[in-house]
Amino acid sequence: MATPKPDTTTLPFSKYPAWTLSKLRPLALQKIQAVHDWVETKCIPAQGIMKAQLAKDRWKMPPLMRQLRAEAKARGLFNLFLPKEFKESPGLTNLEYACCAEIMGRVYWAAQTMNCHAPETGNIELLAKYCNDEQKEKWLYPLLRGEFASAYSMTEPDVASSDATNISISIQRQGDSYVMNGRKLFANAKWNPDVKLYILMGCTDPHNPDPRRRHSMLLIPSDTPGFRMRQNLSIMGYDCAPEGHGEYIYEDVRVPVSNVILGEGRAFEIAQGRLGPGRIHHCMRLIGQGELAYEYALVRATDGRKKPRGKLIGEFDSNIERIAQMRLELDALRLVVFNAADTMDALGNKSGRYGIAQSKILVPVTVARIIDECMQLYGGQGLTQHTPLPEMWTYARFVRVADGPDAAHRHQVGRDQLKTAGDVVARHLRYYEIAQELKKQFGLEEELADDCTWEYIKPKL
Amino acid sequence: MATPKPDTTTLPFSKYPAWTLSKLRPLALQKIQAVHDWVETKCIPAQGIMKAQLAKDRWKMPPLMRQLRAEAKARGLFNLFLPKEFKESPGLTNLEYACCAEIMGRVYWAAQTMNCHAPETGNIELLAKYCNDEQKEKWLYPLLRGEFASAYSMTEPDVASSDATNISISIQRQGDSYVMNGRKLFANAKWNPDVKLYILMGCTDPHNPDPRRRHSMLLIPSDTPGFRMRQNLSIMGYDCAPEGHGEYIYEDVRVPVSNVILGEGRAFEIAQGRLGPGRIHHCMRLIGQGELAYEYALVRATDGRKKPRGKLIGEFDSNIERIAQMRLELDALRLVVFNAADTMDALGNKSGRYGIAQSKILVPVTVARIIDECMQLYGGQGLTQHTPLPEMWTYARFVRVADGPDAAHRHQVGRDQLKTAGDVVARHLRYYEIAQELKKQFGLEEELADDCTWEYIKPKL
Amino acid sequence: MATPKPDTTTLPFSKYPAWTLSKLRPLALQKIQAVHDWVETKCIPAQGIMKAQLAKDRWKMPPLMRQLRAEAKARGLFNLFLPKEFKESPGLTNLEYACCAEIMGRVYWAAQTMNCHAPETGNIELLAKYCNDEQKEKWLYPLLRGEFASAYSMTEPDVASSDATNISISIQRQGDSYVMNGRKLFANAKWNPDVKLYILMGCTDPHNPDPRRRHSMLLIPSDTPGFRMRQNLSIMGYDCAPEGHGEYIYEDVRVPVSNVILGEGRAFEIAQGRLGPGRIHHCMRLIGQGELAYEYALVRATDGRKKPRGKLIGEFDSNIERIAQMRLELDALRLVVFNAADTMDALGNKSGRYGIAQSKILVPVTVARIIDECMQLYGGQGLTQHTPLPEMWTYARFVRVADGPDAAHRHQVGRDQLKTAGDVVARHLRYYEIAQELKKQFGLEEELADDCTWEYIKPKL
Amino acid sequence: MATPKPDTTTLPFSKYPAWTLSKLRPLALQKIQAVHDWVETKCIPAQGIMKAQLAKDRWKMPPLMRQLRAEAKARGLFNLFLPKEFKESPGLTNLEYACCAEIMGRVYWAAQTMNCHAPETGNIELLAKYCNDEQKEKWLYPLLRGEFASAYSMTEPDVASSDATNISISIQRQGDSYVMNGRKLFANAKWNPDVKLYILMGCTDPHNPDPRRRHSMLLIPSDTPGFRMRQNLSIMGYDCAPEGHGEYIYEDVRVPVSNVILGEGRAFEIAQGRLGPGRIHHCMRLIGQGELAYEYALVRATDGRKKPRGKLIGEFDSNIERIAQMRLELDALRLVVFNAADTMDALGNKSGRYGIAQSKILVPVTVARIIDECMQLYGGQGLTQHTPLPEMWTYARFVRVADGPDAAHRHQVGRDQLKTAGDVVARHLRYYEIAQELKKQFGLEEELADDCTWEYIKPKL
């Protein structure tokens, strides 16, 4: 018996632009509906339980998470993120998955119940794309089955690693082994025993004249001797357990050369391919967070117990305007990310690069501001554990620096744009040439002489 | 011989989102290409000529405009804006026309060469939708043929007319006539002899208990006795000639009762239908302005003559970031307006209301800011007639107040949103109920007692 | 032997406006210098130790704090905040103390070493101003000697207590006792055994027709039976131990009637007097935080290890501009708070009300933004415990809601301002009258007729 | 008979900070009061007349201006700006004059009635400081007497002249003459016959190895042959008549070598001294404009005729907040500029440099935004000649680019600040050293090891 087509006039579909809705295939509608039902009934109401379990055993996957993962897997909700081009993929387009990701974002750990969380998503994609069969057998398939967890280790404390050519951890070949020495930040905590694999980017050939051929990526089992976690890094005070963000020391860490991915010196090639869809996922999850924060704002605005100067919070015009502005901006952001996803679907990841950067630059900063305003509507309580808003804000704030700060991405976009200036100038020179003819034709050469009209259209002599 | 399909990898198409491009029919692609060619070759280079002709005779259509209109009409570029549902329409969807409107917006008078300028567009739509055959014969068809110009007269100086229920100009029925007395602002200048018709909104029934049945719309020939233009209103100092913005006095102005549109007391019904697509046009034209301003920024950034401290303006990282930010925001705005247009196409104007408000609130304020930054890159020159940026900024600034200031629209959106709060609260109560069950199931009732967990999910008792 | 006059061309004095510097008396110069030396040598370098001690025993004053307090007291650095008008005061003006407060703010716990921390400062002032001798003996003098700690209990979870007329905790007189029932938020944690006293604002006369006569303030010893701390409230995830922010239940809590301050129904009178200087202290401490954050920005900007794209962070023009903007805004904020302090000195606390509101509204939001930008310059690390910036930001963010959210204060200022509109209108009417005479005199009555010139100067008829 | 001391509890004094008020000497109080009375009764109400006279003869000083100047001179209100150090000065401090300048700023031409307008102020100061006696006799004294007008000619169209080392107009010595060739922008219009003198900065020694010794300043009589005004530059569409902003061509313009100021190659020395106080005047006048705009906002907010949705504009909470925010920011800006002026008084112009930059960067952009918001409160009317707000905004916008755009000043401040980083780093290293000792003392060396605590305090190795 066929599953009935979901009702697209209700949530979550009622929020989608018409053009998006028309592109969602029946399969996708059903998956999105299933994800929605899952998050609404299994995740949002379970936040307290998850917190309580984690409070008892901070660095282990809580039993409820294990149970929910098993159940989600059984329901066919595992690995939805994996793009269609992979044979292991459940078949959603980037746009279809973006819809799922927004819903997952409502609870920060919901994606994990569906094996769709960072850094797993990026890692799985990387392994699926660049590993050989043996490596896949050992690492990719168990990850897809959710049997253990993985980490991605790139950032370093001692250099500006947002410019990856600076990455300095040393990887030296000694016989059949690579030997590593150095420090890393931010990869998921080893304290969590589920984490079995680190994908490490390091420097194998520091003197290669091409700075994009100096680095390699290696598969590092977490129990490799010499590989130590110094401490967990908190993010705005949150320890982010049980995943965490470790600070690591590599001291004569040794793995077989067969652990290199794709080949020595090919880390940039791999990194390039890794980040696109993941940034979209982050951004859609953030929009999900923004939506939930917005709902809390509506709840507070209409809370009959809270009446400063005798009016509901939502009866103050200033707050009415604030709520409208949040709504308008959230919807604009969704259009930006959906478009980026759709561009990847239509034209490939490379063409999607601009849309991804656009999402990465505009979404986190705006969503963080929106959540901040929602907190403000809650007054003092808004900053306490009486609402989840502080954690939500922190996640948005974190994404502003994850994968490089806003400014780095803005610079990249700006530099790309300036390369288009030549064409623009050429076009404007054509305007100028036609204008010169028109002036002659209308006998206005004197009146509209070059030295007293728009400089901008003049050739630069 | 069939016209070849335009190359969609070049301008103007290369700027469109993939989803938009895929919706443009061959007919539309050709029209858009034709509009693009027209504006690039006939309008942008002719700006100086138009200015010079206007300088000589300020309140008349310049000869070049008359000539371009004739030519554009001959090329089939007239009235492209008129929506498909009208039998007089050339057949573009709202989305397809939005593409045209952006291009037209590059030069503020380009739309007029194609009979696609405000207030003509709104007026024509209104007349096409609500007039009887006799009225259409007299006013609509000549307007579509571009034989004269029309004006829309709604704003008043003595009341807050952004809330149209306040409109107070008196219209009294006396026998077979309506007699008007009062003042109006902003309708196009009567000093321009081309303007033959004013569509007036006034008050016929001030004591009707339903404030939305008190007003009527009338057709007022511009030469009606008693109807005087007191002065032209400048906008930020610009007289906006030859269209202008008049300040009017109605003193015992008399028209036959047959000049009422749709019927007495039906002005709100008409006004409702009028504004939607027009706001989209304004917004797309503004994006066109923003794009041109952005091009000037690129031109300046790479102008080899301008090297403060020895670097090109575009070599300063601060400006690289500014240029990126402008680019990203302009593209986000285009997504917003395209989506509003597409929603109207897919679901009708009423469903498009939110998207239209979103465009109206986000586009003008952002484009004005972007143009302002472009001016700033030009230093002192940026504010002078050496660039068209001051006029472009002024247009964007004006649209922030046209059809009511931002805040009025934001309030409307906010009030609509607050009506959804009930559903949100109900949903959150369901989360709470499920959470209660889970607490029982996990034996965490004490630990997660209501009075020490998230207040937000608790029912309001 | 006289202490030498401090060198006012070095820190901390070199930052002060000339007008401020000229108002600092020799006594104050020495105190400020002493506070500066204290914080530079005893507090800033000791932050790690304090953290480590607190990590071991979370809800007790760390031994180092106890030691530093004893030493600061011996050096004459205790209670500097207490205004000159109190006989217990060390004699600094508000302006002079503001200088001290900025320095103390560099480390959030430094004020406590000098018994100048919130809520102690407000509580001490309140007790000094409104208590009778017996109450002073029991509570004020030990507090001044630093023998125990106190808390202020006003905010409630179930009402909008930023509008204090809503405060609802019930205080009923029964014989010689008051009996309290209700809930409170945010007063310092009872878990810290040093906290001996709670100053409670509650409702004694809910039906009094004057809503500002319904409330009373009581002295509540922390070990009073029935007074329970339900949990600690975190602020953006930080527990703020060992002070904390408690969530309290009052269940038939009973104190003798002699514990009322000033008399029943006089809480508003007391509250009025309490908040002024305390807000200034908060704001100056925040400026101190902002200054330190700014120093971290400079440190990062010149860190030779961090060179994205081959340039120091401080060699990017965009960052040069950011650093300048932070510097300019911090200095402007200091002018605002210094002026508020000086106004209180010159004209009394009541006249200072506007300046205090100005500080409260402008400082926290701006300093929070500045710290946020400093974090961003540190990339991912900026959000971790590798810098103290996250805690600093959190403090600034918290002050945005402490004592009522920004918007509440802005509303108050706005309402006060609108009361001045009558005078402004009257002044503008005089302009209009003179203008009428001038028009006559110059024969320009027609040309400058009322209905075509500036509406704004016309009388409203 | 002595003039009575003004009442400092009323306008204009009631707006001043207490510290400022206490520094105003009796002489200054009287001058400020006189300026206030003058502007209130003679300037504000005469704006319509001035406009009408100018409309008739656009490029000549209106008769009313000539009459007001004569009257103001007779009242002793001429040249108040000239700093105390000049023997020709009326004796006000920079702070005292700043008070006058704010008042003058309420009407943009009011300063001119008192011979206190730009560029006269800067020019007079320059001539007084650097000219020899003969030059003074010929140009300075008549200017002080208000007998003619002068212009300052620095900006050029073909280079980035905000970096003055780029100034390229050629000045060649030929015998006893200098011969000039090149183009200039922005100096006051020659079309106004009152303008008799241009102070020109040009390049006498393009190959001098010191780029700050290449330029000279010359006195150019406006009727010098070969010196032509090509057109007037509008500012955001305003012609700014009768002063205007000319675009000039110098073609073999020849003046005697005695027209050089101070000596060849000394233009930078002169320019340095010129700009300080003038920027303060601009900023204070802008604050005056902001204050007047704010008053219009209050007038509109309480206008009984304007009631959207049945409420006064000032009854909307959103507008109450907007009005408060404007008020708070204007007052903060005044503190900034007053402090800059007072710093110059106390420590000299050089020490005032930072405060001047602070004013120049913060004031224009903020005042422009405030005026923009006031316009917005007026809806469509706000942009028309129904209020003076558009011209006021334009003035504020112009000052953002006058004397170089914001960004240029921000860069300068930022670069100066980065020079202080070394001291900051040194201070932080001392913190680190003390911290190391404390760790030893408390036995926390392991726990607080360098590689897991705050990076920021660590020496860079």
UniProtKB/TrEMBL annotation, chains A, B, C, D:
Ranges where the Acyl-CoA dehydrogenase/oxidase C-terminal domain occurs: 268-416
Cofactor(s) essential for the protein: FAD
Domain Acyl-CoA dehydrogenase/oxidase N-terminal residues, every copy: 33-147
UniProt record, GO biological process: fatty acid beta-oxidation using acyl-CoA dehydrogenase
Record's GO cellular component terms: cytoplasm
Pfam families noted in UniProt: Acyl-CoA_dh_1, Acyl-CoA_dh_M, Acyl-CoA_dh_N
UniProt keyword list: FAD, Flavoprotein, Oxidoreductase
Domain Acyl-CoA oxidase/dehydrogenase middle: 151-252
GO molecular function terms attached to this record: acyl-CoA dehydrogenase activity; flavin adenine dinucleotide binding
Entry-linked SUPFAM superfamilies: Acyl-CoA dehydrogenase C-terminal domain-like (SSF47203), Acyl-CoA dehydrogenase NM domain-like (SSF56645)
Family: Belongs to the acyl-CoA dehydrogenase family.
Protein name, entry field: Acyl-CoA dehydrogenase family member 11
Native species: Aspergillus mulundensis
Taxonomic lineage from the root: Eukaryota, Fungi, Dikarya, Ascomycota, Pezizomycotina
